[in-house]
């Protein structure tokens, strides 16, 4: 199946009570996604694993009440590559061009302009984030008053940022792709005088070392030491890793 593509600036009042849980994702083309996982994986395996991550993350999101699932995708023109990968309730919305911070801010602006009451921008590299963390984010944003929700990653980045308004401060003057992203974002939020809600720390899977962490969590029931909640079972990713083990 294919999915509707939302257009910025076309609000729908039926969305006003919902939090948009939007996965930031590239279309899953080999050689274009999860390339830092090759090696130890091949580029085709990396793309296949990326699809598993996308399936698991969106299925997890689909279980959250008072929320709607989106994929904020790039590049425009590759919408068909998401066909059948997402839950039936999902919609797509394109990313704008720009630096990483500009893309995130534009995504928040565009999604809120379609009528949602709040938005969480979620990475596509953390397939085992607990559903409770997504639910906590949506619940915090549903409360009266303005605030920002942040889900720190153990590498110094973050796996989720949630907003009720498209504040520019969290996306400006950030040293992206470094271990200080989350700390700098927290500083910008504090300087702007905006309330901050922190979610449980989780982790991204973007290289061989973090792939080993994921394997230990899913195949050996050994969660990372920094986690405080049981992770999502990520069945598609689990099957992919299990099949790789058996093929050795």
From TrEMBL:
It comes from the Bacteria. Transmembrane segments: none annotated. SUPFAM superfamilies: Nucleotide-diphospho-sugar transferases. This is Glycosyltransferase.
């Amino acid at each position: 199946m294919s999915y509707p593509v939302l257009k910025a600036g076309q609000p729908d009042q039926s969305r006003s009570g919902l939090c948009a849980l939007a996965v930031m994702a590239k279309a899953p083309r080999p050689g274009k996604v999860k390339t830092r996982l090759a090696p130890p994986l091949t580029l085709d395996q990396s793309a296949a694993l990326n699809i598993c991550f996308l399936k698991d993350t969106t299925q997890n999101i689909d279980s959250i009440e008072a929320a709607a699932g989106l994929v904020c995708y790039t590049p425009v023109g590759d919408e068909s590559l998401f066909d059948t990968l997402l839950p039936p309730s999902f919609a797509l919305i394109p990313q704008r061009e720009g630096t990483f911070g500009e893309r995130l801010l534009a995504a928040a602006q565009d999604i809120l302009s379609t009528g949602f009451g709040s938005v969480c921008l979620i990475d596509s590299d953390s397939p085992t984030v607990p559903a409770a963390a997504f639910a906590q984010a949506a619940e915090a944003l549903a409360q009266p008053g303005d605030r920002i929700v942040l889900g720190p990653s153990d590498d110094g980045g973050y796996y989720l940022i949630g907003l009720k308004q498209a504040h520019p401060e969290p996306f400006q003057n950030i040293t992206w792709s470094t271990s200080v992203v989350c700390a700098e974002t927290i500083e910008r939020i504090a300087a702007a005088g905006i309330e901050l809600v922190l979610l449980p720390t989780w982790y991204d899977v973007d290289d061989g070392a973090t792939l080993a962490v994921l394997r230990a969590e899913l195949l050996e029931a050994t969660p990372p030491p920094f986690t405080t909640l049981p992770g999502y079972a990520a069945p598609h990713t689990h099957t992919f890793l299990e099949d790789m083990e058996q093929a050795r």
